[in-house]
UniProtKB/TrEMBL annotation:
InterPro entries the record matches: MPN, RadC_JAB, RuvA_2-like, UPF0758, UPF0758_N
One Gene Ontology MF term: metallopeptidase activity
Family, per entry: Belongs to the UPF0758 family.
Gene3D superfamilies (alphabetical): 5' to 3' exonuclease, C-terminal subdomain, Cytidine Deaminase, domain 2
Organism: Alkanindiges hydrocarboniclasticus
The keyword Transcription is assigned to this record: no
Record's protein name: MPN domain-containing protein
GO biological processes: proteolysis
CDD domains to which the protein is assigned, alphabetical: MPN_DUF2466
Domain MPN per the UniProt entry, residue ranges: 102-224
Length: 226
């Protein structure tokens, strides 16, 4: 049955406007973005099926464009709506951090990097350049690699830190196809970065790894070199 035939009190869009977005289930929120269903299913039935196929709304939203297009009833327009919504969310969080927040809590840092890097299909090395109050000056994705590795040039990171007049630095990279477990190379890079930062009177605050299973903070785990 089409959602239009449902009682107004049960339709996702009407419920959102009356009760707020928090009152809706994952499938109902997704159905609002899908807007319409297919010949075989309503938008909310499509949403439930897609969430079931991917395992969760989180995994669905981290799916690639090709994976989304492979779902029954999904075309370019629906995929574009989802991708645009995700990008708006990332930009909103980035603007909030830049305007208001001190990045002095590993949980907040992990959340931001997760939103920025989890969807990347290959390894990406990124950095937050911060002022003396740990407020975000600039976020940049600096180096791009393959699915298993990424070459990082410390000199370029330091050049960008000086360009942005950063006093504090937080770096991160993702493991697209592996857990968030630091390798010996990750630990060595962190040590080399810290040594380079010390020469320029910049503090390396944290190194974050965004993995398939979780997001790991070196600072939170006590892995930062002394």
């Amino acid at each position: 049955m089409s959602i239009k035939c449902w009682p107004a009190s049960e339709r996702p869009r009407e419920r959102l406007l009356k009760q707020g977005a928090a009152a809706l289930s994952d499938a109902e929120l997704l159905a609002i973005f899908l807007r319409t269903g297919s010949a075989r299913a309503s938008a909310i039935e499509m949403a439930r099926t897609m969430i079931g196929e991917f395992g969760s709304l989180f995994d669905l939203l981290n799916a690639s464009q090709e994976q989304l297009l492979a779902c029954h009833g999904m075309g370019d327009a629906k995929v574009a709506h989802l991708m645009a919504a995700l990008e708006m969310g990332r930009r909103y969080v980035g603007h909030q951090l830049q305007q208001h927040h001190q990045l002095n809590e590993p949980a907040l840092v992990k959340q931001y990097f997760s939103q920025q890097l989890r969807h990347e299909p290959r390894e990406v090395f990124a950095a937050m350049f911060l002022d003396s109050q740990l407020r975000l000056i600039q976020f940049e994705k600096i180096f791009y690699g393959s699915i298993t590795q990424c070459s990082v040039h410390i000199r370029e990171i330091m050049r960008l830190a000086l360009t942005h007049r950063a006093v504090n630095l937080i770096v991160a990279h993702n493991h697209p196809d592996a857990p968030a477990q630091p390798s010996p190379a990750d630990r060595q890079l962190t040590l080399q970065l810290m040594q380079a930062c010390q020469l320029l009177d910049i503090r390396l605050v944290d190194h974050v790894i965004v993995g398939q299973d979780m997001v790991l903070s070196f600072a939170e785990q006590g892995y930062m070199p002394v």
